[in-house]
Structure formats: structure tokens, C-alpha cells
Design brief:
This protein has three domains: about 5-115, Nucleoside Triphosphate Pyrophosphohydrolase, CATH 3.90.79; about 120-145, no CATH class; about 150-194, no CATH class. It starts with 5 loop residues before the first strand and ends with a helix. It has three helices and 15 strands. It is an alpha+beta fold.
Length: about 190
């Protein structure tokens, strides 16, 4: 997938043509095959090949000529032989940057779809809209879109020194530039000062 452009699309193909990229999640963990320090996302025609029946799936778009899907399995599903469930943070550096970014998009879309099965205003089951990535309530008309969470990130340097931060959930030896989510009404500059 490295170097190929991802094109987001809404309408799923009428028929699956050939192999596709499948970003399959169980909770927040992605299904991958690990080999020689690298991790690989399934590139197959159907999840039937892995014996998986997803709870839900979403068509995301195309990379080159290949379709891209996200899917979610029930929490009790075991991974197929020679595969494992892995958290995205643990896969940083084990998959190429393009695949990692697409995995981030896939999990956000799956999380949004899972958490908006019912209207937050009236509790009615929502319906997927085909003209845009949203779920609409047939009773009250409320439309639910994937949530955007803007962040700011800065790299502070002094000469040849860098100021890095470390979160308690980071893997040993992992550090990051300073970063944080934007609070309502806060500017990007205010985020960095905070």
C-alpha cells in the first residue's frame, strides 16, 4: 500500500472485485499477521476466507484499484491462525505510514458507526445515509456525522536539544512532541501554551 493514494468514497461497489484491504477490529485492536518484525493488514477478497463474520462493516474507499473496508468483530472472536489482535499504538513502525494512517481512519469510522446506532436525541435506531457519511434518525431527523477532534502538536527545540513528553501508556522508550486536543473555544496557540 506504501506510496499509493487513498481516495475516500461513500458508495460501496455493487460487487467486490478482487482482493481488498480489510481493517478488521475487535474493540480497539486491529487484526494483523506479524512476520519478521512487520505487521500486515489482510488483503483478501472476503472475510469469509478468514472465517470471520463481522458485526458491521463500512466501505472506506480505494487505494489504487483495490477497495478498502473497515469491519468490527464481536469481542469474543479469536483471531484466525497465524494472526493476532494488536493495538494501533503497538503497530507504530511495524506497518508503513500510509497503512497506519488508513488504520486510524478505519477505527474512527468503526467507532463512530458503533456509537451512533441509536439517535442521541430520541433513542430511535438510526439509518445509514448513502449521499454522505452520516447516520440519520428517521423519527426526529437528527443527523450524526463522524466526530472531528482537532489537536495541536509542537516540537520545542533549543539548539540541538528537543523537548519531548512521555505518557504513562506509551511503550517503554517511546516519547512524543508536545500535543493536546483543542478545547471548545480555544485557539491552537492557546493549546500549545496549556
Amino acid at each position: 500500500m506504501r506510496g499509493e493514494t487513498f481516495i475516500p468514497l461513500l458508495a460501496p461497489p455493487q460487487a467486490q472485485r478482487g482482493e481488498a484491504w480489510w481493517f478488521v477490529f475487535r474493540g480497539a485492536n486491529l487484526l494483523v499477521r506479524k512476520a519478521e518484525g512487520r505487521a500486515h493488514v489482510p488483503f483478501i477478497e472476503s472475510l469469509d476466507e478468514l472465517g470471520l463474520a463481522p458485526v458491521r462493516s463500512q466501505f472506506l474507499g480505494v487505494v489504487g484499484a483495490a477497495h478498502v473496508y473497515s469491519a468490527e468483530c464481536d469481542e469474543s472472536v479469536e483471531p484466525p491462525a497465524d494472526m493476532t489482535w494488536a493495538g494501533l499504538r503497538s503497530l507504530f513502525g511495524a506497518i508503513d505510514d500510509d497503512t497506519f494512517a488508513l488504520a486510524g481512519r478505519a477505527i474512527q469510522i468503526m467507532d463512530w458507526d458503533r456509537s451512533h446506532q441509536f439517535c442521541g436525541r430520541c433513542g430511535t435506531p438510526t439509518e445509514r445515509k448513502l449521499a454522505e457519511r452520516s447516520r440519520a434518525c428517521p423519527k426526529c431527523g437528527q443527523v450524526h456525522y463522524p466526530r472531528l477532534a482537532p489537536v495541536a502538536m509542537a516540537l520545542v527545540h533549543r539548539g540541538d536539544e528537543l523537548l519531548l513528553a512521555r505518557s504513562p501508556h506509551f511503550a517503554p522508550g517511546m516519547f512524543s512532541a508536545l500535543a493536546g486536543f483543542v478545547e471548545p473555544g480555544e485557539s491552537l496557540e492557546q493549546v500549545l501554551v496549556r
